[in-house]
Design goal:
This protein has 358 residues and is an alpha/beta fold. Helix content is 35%, strand content 11%. It has 3 domains: 44 residues; 48 residues, Orthogonal Bundle (Arc Repressor Mutant, subunit A), CATH 1.10.10.60; 203 residues, no CATH class. The structure holds a DNA duplex (21 and 21 nucleotides).
DNA sequence: AAAGGGCTCAACCGCACATTG
DNA sequence: TCAATGTGCGGTTGAGCCCTT
């Protein structure tokens, strides 16, 4: 049994709004506000409309300070950049463009910007240069530098990721100093691969200073089923410069593969809603392009971390496709996205979620 | 001038999450 | 704790406009 419809479809008007309806809605909201209940609003306002329709009309058209019309080059750039980082989270993008609505931006992207981008950037390389924070090539791997992943010279730390925190309440991006610290990703304290491996053998890694205190626990259950299992427990994985968590149970979007990967994270503690699980999700910005713009030319990867008080736990992971450690080394992490547990409504994010929980 | 194909964008739909009782 | 309900969001649709032939 599906849920009941929000309104009586037979008795509500659909289609374009008339000026009279607009005036009624505007006048009502200006006088009384929404009353915190959109469903009840149309009846109170004398409108034969669904509450959702009223909400949409107000938010996208009637509310003050809405801007319509041409987007500026600067706005284009912001949209490109954010799309590359966070994908089609139009409400978040809209929050960065005063006066613009998510619907406007979505339409603009779908009808113009996407085409414009593909016209402007006929090759992957050019796309890379358009998004300065992106690279499509893995950093050169030095097989003799076993601690490459963990040393200051590691090219893992030389790029500038797009790093954003999505505030779940305002649905805007937060660029606070704390986050910026993460963004800068200064190198983690030297840790030998062997040392990390020993920590991993307990399923726990702690880095106690203002570094990430990476506490992560391998999910035995998922690992057991993982084609990555051997790789995960193989020091060569460390030498490849990554820690890999694998599970076959999580998939990415069609054609894509999602590989979980841990790189060190700086401490980021949000203490509101302590009881809630926090999820820190990292995505490679290739993912956005790969999944939503460019097709299957590059791989994507993501991981999710749950923060519980004073610790992070890395939950599960992914990828039935990346069985080859060498191939995995071709991947690179380029951008990070931190967002709250409620900031992942879209399938785009859900696809990166893991299947097993502590 | 008419036809028709493409484009735009307002609006709808359905889903997931949040809230409430 | 759970079901019912409200809200917010991204994806999709389709009417109307525009452009080309």
């Amino acid at each position: 049994m599906g849920r009941a419809p929000c309104c009586d479809k037979a008795s509500v008007k659909k289609g374009p709004w008339s000026p009279e309806e607009d005036a009624k809605l505007k006048e009502f909201i200006e006088k009384f506000g929404t009353g915190g209940n959109w469903i009840a609003l149309p009846q109170k306002a004398g409108l034969k409309r669904c509450g959702k329709s009223c909400r949409l009309r107000w938010l996208n058209y009637l509310r003050p300070n809405i801007r319509h019309g041409e987007f500026s080059d600067d706005e284009d750039k912001i949209i490109y950049s954010l799309y590359a980082s966070i994908g089609s989270r139009w409400s978040v993008i809209a929050a960065q463009l005063p006066g613009r609505t998510d619907n406007d931006i979505k339409n603009y992207w779908n009808t113009k910007l996407k085409k414009k981008l593909l016209t402007m950037l006929p090759s992957l390389q050019e796309k890379t240069s358009f998004f300065p924070s992106m690279t499509f090539q893995a950093p050169p791997y030095d097989h003799h530098a076993s601690d490459q992943f963990l040393t200051t010279s590691s090219s893992f730390y030389t790029y500038t990721p797009n790093f954003m925190n999505v505030d779940s309440t305002s649905n805007s991006l937060v660029h606070d100093d704390h986050i910026n610290n993460v963004t800068n990703l200064s190198p983690p304290p030297p840790q030998s691969a062997n040392n990390l491996m020993s920590l991993m053998s307990n399923n726990t890694i702690d880095v106690n200073d203002n570094y990430n205190y990476l506490r992560f626990q391998a999910d035995h259950h998922s690992m057991c089923n993982s084609p990555m299992q051997e790789y995960y427990h193989n020091e060569s994985a460390m030498k490849e410069g990554m820690l890999v968590f694998g599970s076959t149970t999580c998939s990415s979007s069609a054609g894509g593969s999602c590989m979980s990967q841990l790189i060190s994270q700086r401490n980021y503690i949000k203490d509101h809603h302590q009881q809630q699980q926090y999820q820190i999700k990292q995505e490679v910005d290739q993912m956005s392009l790969h999944d939503q713009v460019l097709g299957d030319q590059i791989q994507s990867q993501s991981f999710m971390i749950d923060q519980k008080p004073k610790e992070y736990m890395i939950k599960n992971h992914v990828s039935s496709l990346h069985n080859d450690p060498v191939e995995m080394n071709q991947l690179n992490l380029n951008s990070y996205l931190f967002h709250d547990v409620d900031g992942k409504k879209t399938p785009h994010y859900q696809k990166g979620m893991c299947s097993s929980y502590y």
